[in-house]
Amino acid sequence: MSIARRGQQWGTFARIWHIFDAKWQDPYKSAEVIRHYLMGMYKPIYHPLNDCGDHVVVINSKDIALRGDEWRKRVYFHHTTYHGGATWTLAWELHHKDPTMIVEKAVYRALPKNLQRRHTMQRLHIFPEEKIPEDVLKNITNQIKQLRPVPVKLDHIPQEEVDNYPQLFKISSKLYS
């Protein structure tokens, strides 16, 4: 086997580390994208019973965006397996307790219900902010594109760009005097 083919084969079977910025992203739509990388569905050797997935690092999970009034209406169920151990927690309460939990639950829900689900979840690394440990950061080689662009706040736009923005009409001061 030539060196080029050996390198290509190594690249196919290697576990790659990807990073995904969850800022202003819907966790349930993002979970579908993350699932493809966790399971290795983009690789030519993918098979549902083959464990060829990659690692995914999710940052800024505290800045996720749920649609509409889902912060107040979405409820998460948990049971301790003891009698009377059922609890229902609202999304905003769960996010306040642990800012990584909603993204984790969304990805867990997106994965197929089989025996590999828990092993696949071990390759998901979620951080509430942009701070990542150095040993994780040195492994990252790819970035997953965000589903929707993060809008820029008006007070973060430079004044020069605001002044040079094309105007449809000029407002004269005579109208207001």
Automatic annotation (TrEMBL):
Keywords tagged on the record: Ribonucleoprotein, Ribosomal protein
Source species, domain of life: Eukaryota
CDD domains: Ribosomal_L13
Single annotated GO MF: structural constituent of ribosome
Protein's name in the database: 39S ribosomal protein L13, mitochondrial
Family: Belongs to the universal ribosomal protein uL13 family.
NCBIfam families hit by this protein: rplM_bact (TIGR01066)
Gene name of the encoded protein: LOC105423183
InterPro entries assigned to the protein according to its UniProt record, in alphabetical order: Ribosomal_uL13, Ribosomal_uL13_bac-type, Ribosomal_uL13_sf
GO annotation, cellular component aspect: mitochondrial large ribosomal subunit
GO biological process, one term: negative regulation of translation
